[in-house]
Design brief:
7-stranded mixed sheet, globular, 2 domains, 6-stranded mixed sheet, 490 residues, alpha+beta, 20% strand, Nucleotidyltransferase, domain 5, 19 strands, 18 helices
Length: 490
Amino acid sequence: MRAELNLAAADLGAESGRVIYGHFANDRLSIEEVHRFRNQSVFLNKYLYWDFLNLFHNITEGLRKLALNISELQGVAVDTWGVDYGLLDSLGHLLANPVSYRDHRTDNILPAVFDRVDEQEFYRRTGIQVMPINTSCQLTALLNENPKQLDAAEDLLFMPALFSYFLSGVMANDTTIASTSQLYDPKARDWAFDLAESLGLPARLFKPAVAPGTVLGGLTAFVDGLFADAKVIAVGGHDTASAVAAVPTEQEDFIYISCGTWSLVGTELREPILTEEARTLNFSNEVGVEDTIRFLKNVMGLWLLQECRRSWARAGKEYDYSDLMAEGTKAEAWRTLLNPDDQLFLNPTDMPTAIAEYAKRTGQPVPETVGQFVRCIVESLALKYWWVIERIQELTGVDYDCIHIVGGGTQNEFLMQLTADVTGQTVVAGPIEATAIGNILMQAKALGSLSDLAHLRQVVRNSFDVKKYQPKDLPQEIKEIKRRFEELNR
């Protein structure tokens, strides 16, 4: 165990990626962004792909930049979004660029999936909410459209494991990313091979998954010998798992929201909740670090705002996020409400048009100004957080009094305050870089410098500031507003 560690996190989200340098010493962590790059999916012929080669190049470019400033690196680890994967042949060659979960090949796939596996049995075994983006659905679509690719595949690696393999030469999915697939049993802590077989998927693809904090091997991607002693480490490869690890709580029972392109709203448990009520409410039981369960619901998140901003930019109107929030705060409150998880918003051609269509369909005023669009998105997200937290309290029997929000969305003060107001709970916002922090500190644990999850979270509290938002009084008609919102969620 070293007194000091130099560690690097490659943290990839759906919109961008970063290489973050972390220096750990004396139970404190300092971090610095070394390299930031865009994650741009590419539509080619029929499918929407991730540009894996460019992303891998940027990870290695970030490490090269880091080598200009430090001479030793002890560890590097990768975290990404969930469900997406790459297939490799028997020689370890990548068969094709990974397809994005936002590709339309799975739009109508659920009936085909549930023709082969009973929906209730699927949940009882995997505890994962029904979403057409799930790996089980993607592989079913692949089997229907390109079975020869599956025939040629020897291994399936989820995105963080795919990057780690090309950095280290070692193939291994970690349990946090495997559990997002809807093909992993969180109670048995193993693949649900019988479900995969029922879907017609070859068992050979699903090799044993490793625990977060497993040292995979040396950093072999650099033939020029940079960082020759660095280890590639499997951490919470699913970015939400790394983010939840870095929640700066001292409580055993807490609510977290990992707030970014997606919003993951949940709590941390020791055992999954696999009841019929949890299935009906469409909650997920994903594996966390240190044998925890992330009991959560995926909410579409700031994707709606990001896509509106992108649409307005195409029309020649550039806004930064502070400008958008300023416009939103001036707009009329509670005018138009959305269910952020409506299928219409998953990957529309134009998000403002989709929101307008939704408003018309639900008999609400159509947003007309930028501020009205922003306000309806932010208010609807805060209401969705309230709705999910209410369901979590029902399912766990725990009354929570504090919400920890981590990730880039914590910079949106309008959303943070509205969440406190709508839920009536204190919001503790931060750290912003929770995903990279959780990634780096799980590396430190793997290398023997942290004892357990409580120790890890103590380091987060030692090292990073948070901001608290206290709930303010809402208008008397808030009960009617919540009733309107619940109608949209039926």
